[in-house]
């Protein structure tokens, strides 16, 4: 479903008092459009309706006009840089940010996470639901599947053998 159609449904859900449904739709949009700051802002506003300042701060973190108390609540809940980096659910380069402030925030979080991890980290990781194949993972996946198949066949053989012994 296109972004505009889903946002229209969000508006209808909010007008009808279906805040949890609107929140769920917006969460889906953030995962599909992680670089759309307007969707993040809308999700932050919905969490504000819930009375959850940490989550409101999470989704408003890249906005210059964010609420300081919500930002503090977010930073307290996600106290380490790696936790914040995961919580922001940003994928792709910081250059995708549509505002300079958002780009600076993302760069600061990434730099702090790199310092905490002791090696450079990047936002270019696979979003939830999208698998990135690494070199050689095809054969490893094949071996894992073959091992599972052997285990299932061994279980079935034991089970059938048990049934035969039971009725003998």
UniProtKB/TrEMBL annotation:
The keyword Transmembrane helix applies. The keyword Membrane applies. Keywords: Membrane, Transmembrane, Transmembrane helix. It comes from the Bacteria. The chain crosses the membrane at residues 139-160. This is Transmembrane protein. It comes from Streptomyces gibsoniae. The lineage of its organism: Bacteria, Bacillati, Actinomycetota, Actinomycetes, Kitasatosporales.
């Amino acid at each position: 479903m296109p972004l505009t159609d889903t946002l229209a449904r969000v508006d209808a859900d909010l007008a009808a008092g279906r805040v949890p449904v609107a929140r769920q739709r917006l969460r889906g949009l953030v995962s599909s459009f992680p670089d759309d700051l307007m969707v993040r802002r809308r999700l932050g506003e919905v969490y504000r309706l819930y009375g959850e300042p940490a989550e409101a701060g999470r989704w408003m973190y890249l906005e210059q006009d964010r609420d300081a108390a919500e930002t503090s609540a977010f930073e307290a809940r996600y106290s380490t840089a790696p936790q914040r980096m995961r919580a922001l659910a940003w994928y792709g380069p910081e250059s995708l940010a549509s505002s300079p402030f958002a780009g600076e925030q993302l760069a600061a979080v990434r730099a702090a996470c790199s310092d905490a991890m002791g090696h450079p980290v990047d936002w270019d990781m696979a979003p939830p639901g999208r698998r990135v194949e690494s070199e050689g993972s095809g054969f490893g996946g094949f071996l894992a599947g073959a091992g599972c198949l052997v285990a299932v066949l061994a279980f079935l053989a034991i089970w059938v053998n048990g049934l035969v012994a039971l009725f003998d």
